[in-house]
Design a protein that fits this description.
Number of helices: 10
Distance between the termini: 41 Å
Shape: elongated
CATH superfamily of one domain: Glutamyl-tRNA Synthetase, Domain 3
Helix content: 25-40%
CATH class of one domain: Alpha Beta
Radius of gyration: 20 Å
CATH topology of one domain: Glutamyl-tRNA Synthetase, domain 3
Length: 319
């Protein structure tokens, strides 16, 4: 597999791209803070993008709540907020251009059909290529899949180190356009990162494996490839990722001061003693540390109580 062009924008540019499925919780605030710190330490810009292209999961008012939380925490962004829901026609045009060039193909396979197929990869069911050579003519909706290249591709994550993947052998051709007539995450994020001139993507390790299809798609679309830095995701006492689905407590505006202090501690940054208990934006403005987050190198998950002493009540509320 060849190498995509490396992003060479003069000004470093990072981004935070939440889905508006609820207000920020401690895990999502940690990712936003890491991304902001990294961009600012490099003298660059920090963008916010709202990934609101999955209507059944979007919570009314959540996007505005998230923006208010970021502002209150001192995580000020540069330029206008980009809303993915305003770009559906653009994503569709690019998806169909890939089909026209034979880089992608329509697929009518159901999840149960794929799961029942004997082929599987290390991360679960592998698309067996049923529609790759000759798409079946079925009535009803179909997805669009990218024809992935053969061979192993590698990249170096700034925090997690060397990563390797054989997409063809591990996952098979992946979905670009969903059966419900919406763009897949992989397609939308790759297009937006390129067109927003993002030079480095800082996000959680739950998305580390997504980097392989993203780099494949960047190559096929002749787009620049940003750098990647994946920070550990926070997990609960049972090892499940802290998320809205696992009952993570949403942060209120009154929680942000304590939450920001804890975020900075997790990331290895130091707050001056005289600012202990200060508002979040003051903590953020005065904190100093390693923008490479070296203390977290090679760590993919962080369990409760890994961030220093606090009361059990605070742990339960913020994590």
């Amino acid at each position: 597999m060849g190498n995509a062009t490396t992003a060479t924008a003069e000004l470093p540019r990072g981004r935070f791209a939440p889905s508006p499925t609820g207000r920020l919780h401690f895990g999502s605030l940690l990712t936003a803070t890491a991304s902001w710190l990294r961009a600012r330490a490099l003298g660059g810009q920090w963008l916010v993008r709202i990934e609101d292209i999955d209507p059944p999961r979007v919570v009314a008012g959540a996007a505005d709540d998230i923006l208010r939380q970021l502002e209150a925490a001192g995580l000020q962004w540069d330029g206008p907020v980009l809303w993915q829901s305003s770009r559906l026609a653009h994503y569709r045009e690019i998806a169909h251009a890939l089909v026209d060039s034979n880089a992608a193909f329509p697929c009518s396979c159901s999840r149960s059909e794929i799961a029942a197929h004997p082929q599987s990869g290390p991360t679960g069911s592998r698309y067996p290529g049923t529609c790759r050579a000759a798409p079946r003519r079925r009535r009803g909706p179909h997805a669009l899949r990218l024809r992935v290249s053969t061979g192993t591709s590698t990249f170096n994550d700034a925090l997690q180190g060397r990563q390797a993947c054989d997409l063809a052998g591990e996952t098979g051709d992946f979905i670009l356009w969903r059966k419900d007539d919406l763009p897949a995450y992989h397609l939308a994020v790759v297009i937006d990162d390129a067109e927003q001139h993002v030079t480095e993507v800082v996000r959680g390790t739950d998305l580390l494996e997504s980097t392989h299809p993203h780099r494949e798609l960047q190559q096929r679309l002749h787009l620049p490839t940003p750098g990647y830095l994946h920070v550990p995701v926070l997990v609960d006492s049972h090892g499940a990722k802290l998320s809205k689905q696992t009952g993570a407590a949403e942060l209120g505006l009154a929680d942000l001061d304590e939450a920001m202090a804890r975020c900075l501690g997790v990331l290895g940054w130091t707050t001056p003693p005289e600012l202990v208990g200060a508002p979040a934006r003051e903590l953020l403005a005065s904190a100093t540390g390693d923008a490479g987050f070296a203390t977290l190198a090679g760590i993919r998950t962080l369990a409760p109580y890994a961030t220093g002493p606090s009361t059990a009540a605070t742990q339960n509320q913020l994590w």
